[in-house]
Amino acid sequence: MPLDSVARRHADGLFIQSIEKIGRRCTERSNALKRAYFENGLSPGQIHLLVFREVELHLAVAEAEGPERHSSGKELGGSDFRG
Fold first, then answer.
1. Averaged pLDDT, 55-64
2. SS3 73
3. In 40-72, which residue ranges form alpha helices assigned H by DSSP?
4. Domains held by the chain: number
5. Distance of alpha carbon 11 from alpha carbon 62, whole angstroms
6. Distance CA 74, CA 83 (A)
7. Which residue has the higher pLDDT, 69 or 58?
8. Does residue 82 form part of some domain?
C-alpha cells in the first residue's frame, strides 16, 4: 500500500536524518584516522590510501549485509563504525 503524503514526508525526513548522521560519523572517523596516522609519521598520500581502504571495507560489508542490516537496526558491520 502506498504511503499518503504526510507519511511520505515523514519517511523522507527520517531518511535524510539517517544519511546526515552517517555522513557526520564518517567524517568524524576519517578525521580521527587522519590524526592517528599523521601522529605515527605517515605521509598524506599514505593516510589518504589507508582511510580510503577503510571506507571501502565498510561499504563492502554494508553491501554484503544488504537490507537485512537496515531492517534489523544493526549498525554497519555489526559495529558502530568506530573501528
1. 78
2. coil
3. 44-72
4. 1
5. 21
6. 15
7. 58
8. no
